[in-house]
Amino acid sequence: MDTQALPRSGAVRSDFLNKVPVITATFWLIKILSTTIGETFADYLAVQVGLGTAATDGAMFAVLCVTLVAQLRARRLIPWLYWLTVVEVSIVGTQITDFFTDILGVSLYLSTAVFAVLLATVFTIWWRQERTLAITAIDTPRRERFYWAAILVTFALGTAGGDLATEALSLGFRWGTLIFGGLILAVWAFTRIGLNKVVAFWIAYVLTRPLGASLGDLLTQDPTYGGIGLGAGLTSALFLGVIVILVLREQVNVNRHGVRVKGQTPAVHPAHDYAWAAGGAAAIAVLAAFLGANLNPTTATAQVASGPITTHPSGTAPAIETDATSTLGDLRPYAVIIDDLAAKEKSGDTQSSLARAKDLEVAWDSAEAAIKPTSPADWHLMDSAIDAVLTSVRATNPSTTDIQTALTALQQTVATLEQKK
After folding, report:
1. pLDDT band at 272 (very low <50, low <70, confident <90, very high)
2. Confidence band of 147 (pLDDT split at 50, 70, 90)
3. Is this prediction's pTM over 0.85?
4. Band of the pLDDT at 14, cuts 50, 70, 90?
5. Which letter does DSSP use for residue 22 in this model?
6. CA-CA distance, 71 to 288, in Å (whole number)?
7. Alpha-carbon distance 300 to 367, whole Å?
8. Separation between Cα atoms, residue 208 and residue 180, nearest integer Å
9. With 0-12 CB in 10 A as exposed, 13-18 as middle and 19+ as buried, what is 11?
10. What DSSP state is assigned to residue 394?
């Protein structure tokens, strides 16, 4: 595949320069951090802030539309606008896959295959129209539209493929970080022995999505599950800070030297770029280690402490709360919240019930990355039961019968999983 752009009907216009940053070490670092913040920020809005999945999806899609229009209307590279668009595309691409998987129940095998075919289709049409897939030639409106279409699909494919590997192979986020990071390094090594750079770029671009997700999970998950325990909000803030610094540097360079065109010497010496990328990565590592060691993140266990532990009417603790084993690990923290929620509902304490429902949602969603790979089918079973409880408790006109039915079904689900162990 030729990396040189051949002139076609969309000839380069003098006022429309290449719209993609130079591919450097800082480009890849910002890309990975953007992928991570896209996922953690969406989770933060949906769960911790309490917007819910539907509201978050709608808001992110609307913001993406506005930002993408601004990006497409620009006549040259504007780094802050470009990277803002990447962050928002990463969020929406992830939400597309999650919609098919979690809402429609589409198999990850099928969604991964569909998105792979869709990406191949975008590339095929793009190549036939422009005779190039090189990102050094995003210098006409049509090429840029192809570029962003491909970017959106790569995020959806990376999400589906990463989830498939995590669930089907039970990799977990720690192994995911190592494996996907290793695959990207392997792609780089193959370019040194002749792999086409355009092909290598797009392979690496897809792989950065599951790498970023695994890295985000590593930082957000509680130490009980092998993570650092920063939580979604703090992780998003940390990554956003580094992204802002690196993008501002890139914006200053563009303002000072102009947009680099193909074949032109980079405005920043490669050694300086590697130093900035290494500095950004080191800052994240040091701050994550420091914060993880000194903060008390919100965990499933902490959520239990936010309300009293209740007992069954007999005064004895329920059996499911004395057994630490199940196909999903220790479910006792969730069982305590569920029982407490049931007790508050029975007493008619609506406000406390809503608070404990939020505790359950945050605790369960926060631990998803750690426990879902252990048994995806059982995770989906309990997730559906929890969703039924949350829906009934938060209904506009809540029905006591519906709430009690949903809670009973959830308690039975927990008991069933405990027995399967």
Report:
1. confident
2. very high
3. no
4. very low
5. -
6. 32
7. 7
8. 8
9. exposed
10. T
